[in-house]
Every structure is written in C-alpha cells, then in structure tokens.
Design brief:
By secondary structure, the protein is an alpha/beta fold. It folds into 2 domains: 127 residues, Rossmann fold (3-Layer(aba) Sandwich); 200 residues, Rossmann fold (3-Layer(aba) Sandwich), CATH 3.40.50. 38% of the residues lie in helices and 15% in strands. The strands form 3 sheets. Strands 4-5-13-10-11-12 form a 6-stranded mixed sheet, with helices on both faces. The chain has a 4-stranded parallel sheet with strand order 8-7-6-9. The protein has a 3-stranded antiparallel sheet with strand order 2-1-3. Helix 5 runs parallel beside helix 6 and helix 10 packs across helix 12. It is globular, with a radius of gyration of 22 Å. The protein starts with 7 loop residues before the first strand and ends in a 5-residue tail after the last helix. The protein binds pyridoxal-5'-phosphate and zinc ion. Pyridoxal-5'-phosphate (PLP) binds next to helix 10.
Length: 420
C-alpha cells in the first residue's frame, strides 16, 4: 500500500472529471463542481474479501480500503457497526412485510451517524498535518467533532446556529471545544465557515475536508449489507439535511456490487425531510431535477438546511433508483418518535421521527409496496432533543409513598384507561 495515498488515487471533480491531489480541498477550480475521492478498485478487490472483512474488528474500519485515509485510522477507531434490528412490531404498524432499523442512535461516541464522517475527517486531517479542526453544524456534527477532537488531542472550533436544542449545545461544550453560536440559519453559518476556512489553516470537516468526510457515510451502507447477510435491501429510507448521507448509501451499495461482495440487485433509496425544511422532497415530488432554497422552520433542527449542498445529487440518486421522497409535519415527527419508541424500544431524535413518519407515508401510498422489505436509517438519539417532546408524551402521575394511594391510582385507571 502506498504510504501517501493508501487505496485512494486522487480527488476528482464530479462534473468535469478533472483530477486533483489528495489535499484539503473540495471544489473544482474550473466549474466549482464538488470533488470526490477516486479509488484504485483493482487493488481494493484483491484485499477486500468477505472473509477478510469478517476477520476484522466490529467497527466501521473493517471496510477501511473504501474509506479515504492513507494509513491506519487514528481517530474514532471504535465508531460504527451499530445494531441492525428486525422491527416486526413496527412493520405491522406501518403495514409492511419486513422492516429493519439501522440504529445509529447508539453510535459511539456521540450517539449519531456523524461519528462515522468525523472519524474519517479527523483521521485524514491528522495525516495532512492539521492541529485544529472545525465544522459548520446543525448540532450532531458539532458534538462529534468536539468529542473526537478531545480524544485525539486536537483543538476544535464548532459553529452552530445559536437557537439549537440545549442538549446539542451542552454536548459540544462539555468536551472543551470552542463553540460559536451564530445568529442565523445553518446556511449563514456555512457561508461564514467557508470564509473562515479561506483565512485560517484549519481542517473544516465539512468544508475543505468534505470529500473525505462525506465518504465516512458509506460505512452505514456497508454495514447494512453485511448485517443483512450480504444483501442489498429493496428499500432504504434516509433522512436528508444536505443530502450527502443518501448519496453515500447509494455509493456504498454500488461499490460493494462492483467489488463482487454482494450480488447485483435492484433497490430504491428514498429520502425523508421535515415539512418545515423540505427543499429536496418538494422538488422530488414535483419531478424536478433542481431544488428551490427555503428558510427552515422545524423541530427537526438537525435536518434544517435550506440550501442542501448535495440536494441535486440526492435527487439524481432517487431518480436513478426509483426512490421517492416525502416530508412530515412537526406533529407527525413526534408521532414517529413515539411509534418507534413504543414498538421497538428505540428512542430517536427528531430526525428519526422524520424517517419513521415518511416511511409510513411511502408505505401507505404504495410507493414502497407492502410486500417488500425496507431498512430505516435511524441517525440520532432522542436524549439530545428532549425539548421537542416536552408536553407531548403524557405526564407522570404523582402520589405519596402510600400503598393506598397507589391502589386508588390503579383503580381509577381501570375505570378510565385513557386517563393517563
Ligand atoms: C446530519 C444529519 C443527517 C443528514 O445528513 P446529510 O448527510 O447532511 O443529509 C441525518 N440525521 C441526523 C441526526 C443528522 O445529524
Ligand atoms: Zn470540474
């Protein structure tokens, strides 16, 4: 393996195909197209067999040939290989034959799928000699950059919209990161970060490091295939903020097929957005190839990106795979959170409520046929977005520590079971 590049060949423009060195850069100088990592698939094929993968530790780095670091990973070495749960009770409620939950609500260390992208971005940032890392975040990315930077001894600056949930803010501050709250939407945070990245020599995980960072999302798809017994699911439902995760799930299925690790199969990738920030799903439903930017207003703050960087490519993936998109209201998001919790004992954040709610709609409309099998990507943990549920999940019934009062409570409940 080449010590400088590993299994990577170059950065390549998605639009014109021009190649660039494997540095901290993310746009083509000619057409401003996004740069993507290109790999040496012949060498990967020789090294990455099913039995080689299965002999490795149970984390995302068991697919290391397809992840963009030159040497061994140094940050986030335990991230990934989260549970894939067969969700029979939820399947019944949603009216589908077979349903699986890919549960990144319990990803390590910060309870969201962002640990995947950050472990790649920070490992690569260290290889490129950076000592300060940064990000523009809707919350979970900030948490993961803060935590992983702390454990790697890197300095961290995280930039967030100032109106984020308390859980997300505290989960960044506790690691000692420099947390900067911007009075504005994520798009404004992101624009400022692009300016800062041009001036300071920092590794911005989702700006100048974006080509490497985004590749980390593929690991979620690799794991789904392996955990299904080396099969591509017929339907995968993915929440969309920038749209990057959705495009990378598709790429992961394609790469595993190309490498002969899984047999060629038809599949659809579907996208989920909150109605209060749905530029991609609105365009998909109208049959358009381009989205119109929006101003977000939703409880699903982790998905509140009004100008999604990969929206165009997400629309393309859905078109190519026969996937659909839809969006759900704040109330439907809360219903989705409760449904997953009550059926499967999994507490997801608002983004997960979006995914469950949209799955319900797509199954009800027949866009996902009732006789098929589907995987829901649950990407974050409900303990971080408690604010969204306050006043919406019932209340505790308080009594004094007296058996008589308890018995009175039970009796009242038996008489009117809905009183709770
Ligand atoms: C960031 C995020 C997403 C979506 O990410 P994109 O790749 O930008 O579409 C989904 N779910 C959660 C919980 C997130 O934090
Ligand atoms: Zn180009």
């Amino acid at each position: 393996m080449d010590k400088q590049t590993g299994f990577m060949k170059a950065l390549k423009c998605r639009e014109c195909g021009r190649e660039y060195p494997l540095a901290a850069t993310h746009v083509c100088e000619f057409d401003f197209g996004p740069l993507e990592v290109a790999y040496d698939y012949d060498r990967i094929k020789a090294s990455m067999t099913r039995s080689a993968i299965q002999s490795r530790s149970k984390n995302m780095w068991r697919y290391r040939e397809l992840l963009p670091v030159a040497g061994e990973p140094t940050v986030g070495c335990e991230v990934g290989f989260t549970p894939l749960i067969k969700a029979d009770r939820l399947a019944k409620r949603l009216g589908i034959r077979e349903l699986w939950i890919k549960n990144d609500a319990v990803n390590y260390p910060t309870l969201s799928f962002k640990d995947r992208v950050v472990s790649v971005a920070l490992s690569r940032a260290k290889e490129l000699g950076f000592t300060t890392v940064a990000c523009a975040s809707t919350g979970n990315l900030a948490n993961s950059v803060a935590a992983n930077a702390a454990s790697a001894g890197l300095k961290a600056y995280v930039f967030i919209p100032s109106d984020l949930e308390l859980g997300k803010v505290l989960n960044s501050l506790v690691y000692g990161a420099n947390v900067v709250g911007i009075k504005g939407h994520y798009d404004e945070v992101n624009r400022l970060c692009a300016e800062i990245a041009g001036k300071y020599n920092w590794a911005f995980v989702n700006v100048n490091m974006r080509p490497y960072y985004a590749e980390g999302s593929k690991s979620m798809g690799f794991e789904i295939i392996e955990q299904l017994g080396w099969k591509i699911p017929q339907h995968t439902i993915v929440p969309m903020a920038s749209g990057s995760l959705l495009t990378k799930i598709h790429k992961s299925y394609q790469e595993m097929t190309k490498l002969g690790l899984v047999s060629d199969a038809e599949y659809s990738v579907h996208g989920a957005q909150p109605a209060g920030c749905s530029p991609i799903s609105v365009a998909q439903k109208a049959g358009l190839d381009f989205f119109k930017p929006v101003k977000p207003n939703t409880i699903a703050k982790s998905l509140a990106i009004g100008t999604p960087a990969d929206g165009f490519y997400a629309l393309k993936v859905m078109k190519e795979t026969g996937g659909a998109a839809d969006d759900v209201t704040d109330d439907e998001i809360r219903d989705g959170i409760k449904l997953l919790a009550e059926c499967e004992g999994i507490f997801t954040e608002t983004a997960g409520g979006v995914t469950v709610g949209v799955a319900k709609k797509l199954i009800a409309s027949g866009k996902i046929p009732a006789n098929d099998s589907a995987v829901l990507c649950i990407t974050g943990n409900g303990l971080k977005t408690l604010d969204a549920l306050v006043g919406h999940v019932g209340h505790t019934r308080e009594i004094r520590p007296s058996l008589r009062e308890f018995e009175a409570l039970i009796e009242a409940e038996t008489k009117s079971p809905t009183a709770a």
